[in-house]
Design brief:
15% strand; 104 residues; alpha+beta; 4 strands; two-stranded antiparallel sheet; 21% helix
């Protein structure tokens, strides 16, 4: 694990209750992997599980964490903050099924 839950707020602009990702598992110039625990108090949960908006928010936070990680650990200044609005648009997003937290 690259960044634990204790330090994830250093990488992303979101704050509670909007924070979804728990940690950053992997990050390089081309790929990023975050970890998420779907909790019952998540505002993007409904009776069907994690909503499509929740999936998109998870993608946005993962993208922000990648940017924040690369800014802090890359070449150049290491004190830059992750920018707000990492994802400008998403086209043709389709969620075919959603897993409830007890199915994971």
């Amino acid at each position: 694990m690259l960044v634990s839950k204790d330090n994830i707020l250093d990488l992303i602009p979101q704050r509670y209750p909007m924070v979804m990702i728990d940690s950053l598992a992997y990050c390089d110039e081309k790929q990023v992997v975050s970890q998420l625990t779907i909790r019952e108090d998540n505002i993007f949960i409904n009776n069907m599980g994690l909503t499509a908006s929740g999936m998109m928010e998870n993608m946005a936070q993962t993208a922000a964490a990648r940017t924040g990680y690369l800014l802090k650990n890359g070449k150049g200044e290491s004190n830059k903050k992750a920018p707000i609005g990492v994802i400008g648009s998403i086209k043709n997003f389709r969620l075919y099924f959603s897993l409830k937290s007890d199915q994971l």
